[in-house]
Amino acid sequence: MPSVDDSLLCPGCGASLSRDDTVCEYCGRKVVVTGVTLKTANRAVFKRADKTIEKIKGVVGASENSDVLAAEAFNMLHRGQYAEAARKLDRAQATTNDPDVVFYDAVAHYKCQEPYELDLDEAESIITTIDSAIALNPDPQYFYAKAFIIREVFERRFLNYDEESQAVFAKAAGLSEGDKADIESILSQ
C-alpha cells in the first residue's frame, strides 16, 4: 500500500489520501491529484463544504473539535458570514495552537465591520491576535496582513500606532505579488 500523505485529504469525506490514490477507499469518490494551487483547490472544496463538514463531524464525532470548528468557520468566511466565523474561530482558537486558525480569527473579526467604522480598541485586539499568529509562525503573509490593517485603520485616519505600516510591510519581504494580492483581497471590504 502506498504511503499516506497527511496533507492530501479527500474532498468528499476528509480521509487521508496518498498521491497514488485514484479513488477514496472510504467514500468511493474519484480522486485526481493535480498541480493546482491551494487557492484553486479551496474554491473547489468550498462548493461542497457543507456536505464535507457534516461528514467530518460524523467521523470525528464532536462539533467542538478545533479542526471541525475551523473548517466550518473557513466555509463561513468564504460565504461572507464574518460574525459567525469569528465566533467559531474564537472557540477553535481556545483549543489549538494552529497559526492559521489564530490568523483567520483576526481576519474574521476585521471583516465584521468597515475599517473606518472599526473601534480602535477592537483594531488593536485584531492586531494583537495577528501578533499571536506571528509568534507561532512568522509567515510573511501574516506580517503583510498586519501592515495592511495598520495602514487601513490607523494611518488612513491620520492616527499613530506603535508600529508604522511601512516597517511591518518590510518584514513581509520576499512575498510574491500574487500572495500580496491574495491577502489584500481577503482583507478588502
Kindly list the characteristics that best describe this protein.
189 residues, mainly alpha, two-stranded antiparallel sheet, 4% strand, elongated
Lateral arrangement of strands in the main beta sheet: 1-2
Low-confidence stretches: 1-6, 35-45
Structural class, please? mainly alpha
In total, the number of strands is: 2
Distance between the termini: 47 Å
Strand content: under 5%
Helical residue percent band: 55-70%
User: Helix and strand string, N-terminal first?
Assistant: EEHHHHHHHHH
Question: What value does the average pLDDT take?
Answer: 82
Largest sheet: 2 strands, antiparallel
Please, how many helices? 9
| Radius of gyration of CA atoms, rounded to a whole number | 18 Å
The outline comes out as: elongated
Could you explain how this protein is built, in words?
The chain has a domain at 98-189. The chain is built from nine helices and two strands, in the order ββααααααααα. The protein has helices at 38-46, 49-60, 66-79, 82-93, 99-111, 120-136, 140-154, 165-170, 177-187, and strands spanning 5-9, 16-17. The protein has a two-stranded antiparallel ribbon with strand order 1-2. A hairpin with a 6-residue loop joins strand 1 (5-9) and strand 2 (16-17). Helix 5 (99-111) packs antiparallel against helix 6 (120-136). The radius of gyration is 18 Å and the shape is elongated. Residues 1-6 and 35-45 have low confidence and may be disordered.
